[in-house]
Amino acid sequence: xxxxxxxxxxxxxxxxxxxxxxxxxxxxxxxxxxxxxxxxxxxxxxxxxxxxxxxxxxxxxxxxxxxxxxxxxxxxxxxxxxxxxxxxxxxxxxxxxxxxxxxxxxxxxxxxxxxxxxx
Length: 119
What we know:
Layout: E1 2-7, E2 10-13, E3 18-26, E4 31-39, E5 46-52, E6 58-60, E7 68-73, E8 78-83, E9 92-100, E10 106-109, E11 113-118
Parallel strand pairs: 2-11
Antiparallel strand pairs: 1-3, 3-8, 4-5, 4-9, 5-6, 7-8, 9-10, 9-11
């Protein structure tokens, strides 16, 4: 199994930037893709972005396209989420998760990191 730890959250003003990190450990060689999700107060968890480790193909949810960038560092087993032009509606707990090569679903999750964007 893969263990994931997110970091980099915090309080930022609208228009500001943050970079989230997700460090993996354990059986990271089995990871097919890593994704970022978020859950705002009173709302369901939603997909934000993902990256496939082999080749680096990325995918983004509509609300964050052009503002967020997902990237990876194979040597550090780390995935980043660079968040620019942040908006109050980006406020949420952000989670990273991984898809193993043996499964079709996200099966490993981090503990989450809080991102708060003030007006």
